Amino acid sequence: MQQTQNTTLLIIGGGPGGYVAAIRAGQLGIPTILVEGQALGGTCLNVGCIPSKALIHVAEQFHQTRQHSQHSNLGIKVAPPSLDIAQSVAWKDGIVDRLTSGVAALLKKHGVKVIHGWAKILDGKSVEVDGQRIQCEHMLLATGSSTVELPMLPLGGVVISSTEALAPNALPQRLTVVGGGYIGLELGIAYSKLGVDVSVVEARERILPTYDSELTAPVAESIKKLGITLYLKHSVEGFDADNKLLQVRDPAGAMLQIATDQVLVAVGRKPRTQGFNLENLGLKMNGAAVAVDERCQTSMRNVWAIGDLSGEPMLAHRAMAQGEMVAEIIAGKARRFEPTAIAAVCFTDPELVVVGKTPDAVEEEGLDCIVAQFPFAANGRAMTLESKSGFVRVVARRDNHLILGWQAVGVGVSELSTAFAQSLEMGARLEDVAGTIHAHPTLGEAVQEAALRALGHALHL
């Protein structure tokens, strides 16, 4: 006889959106069951955000040490380093294990029942997991996303995705990255710093094509200095596995062959809509994603969708915010999702941050705005970090100085993203940021100086 469990909230997917929703629901006293077929933490904790940043850190440390062994303006003299990649991966795995164990402990602390298995949706009120039926009042879909594959370049063998790239058994001598977006460049730069000969193939005319060229120029310059070969406006045609040759077509239509030991396919991610009988709900779709309103409600009452499943931007912190919000709505609180201040961060070298509206966006909308930037070449803290490239840029209305957006590129600018987002959330004006005393010496002084420059009186430029 089939067992049946009843709960108020059933969450399918234990990634950042799903587990945060479960924790908040538990805090609010909502009986909650979370179903996850793989490790808790989803793509981000296991094979995405966290392990990639760990690998980037290893690569940066190794690269810096190699540079010091050759020549150092800092006066540091060391022997040429060697790398034990197995130990590096083990260190990365240790971080992942600690974080996923922490998620499990938090869910237990807040009374969330976790069922490990694959949910099969029966209808809007019930699922089946390994022969066990679960009935609910509310169903939250948080299934995340999966890697986009190319038909002419199927994954397998030496053709890998970011998942395999983050857990190498050994480093290839040559790596070709297909895709010049943030995933491809973060990993391509990391592998280059680990001593791998890296090439990047991008179909569009420049790297990071979703960001403006002024913002990405310092990243392009860094890639050039690292010796990474760029094949821009080149399309992939296929792969000769026997001879390890990636076949690409150049802008003139000529066929080229790139010799490589490994190919990393990094052309994006797509909502994970297969494998759990989503079609049984007959939900309205928005392209490949599940359509939701400002409360993350789908077209079916009491069925919710958050995170990558609900489309772009596919960011863990967006999913977390949506998950927390849905739990509070189910608890009876009045909430709606406001996507204005979601930071997008590229952990390239240098790092890149975009929050809110860009200069191009306000121009398209016909808004009369002030755009001002302050270069890190005039920032003392950046100099002490051996970096002078990049800038902080602010976009604000001309009439009332309301800040609409921030962009930055430079060393460590990911840590400025919270201040950027907070200023938009709080409705800050240029005078608010310019009048705030910023600690010296810090990278954050460039934020104040950008606001001052927008007002016509930057102090250090």
Automatic annotation (TrEMBL):
Its main location: cytoplasm. It comes from the Bacteria. Its cofactor is FAD. Disulfide bonds join 44-49. GO terms for molecular function: dihydrolipoyl dehydrogenase (NADH) activity; flavin adenine dinucleotide binding. FAD binds at residues 53, 143-145, 308, 314-317. The active site is at residue 440. Residues 342-451 form the Pyridine nucleotide-disulphide oxidoreductase dimerisation domain. Homodimer. Belongs to the class-I pyridine nucleotide-disulfide oxidoreductase family. The active site is a redox-active disulfide bond. This is Dihydrolipoyl dehydrogenase. It comes from Pseudomonas auratipiscis. The gene is lpdA.
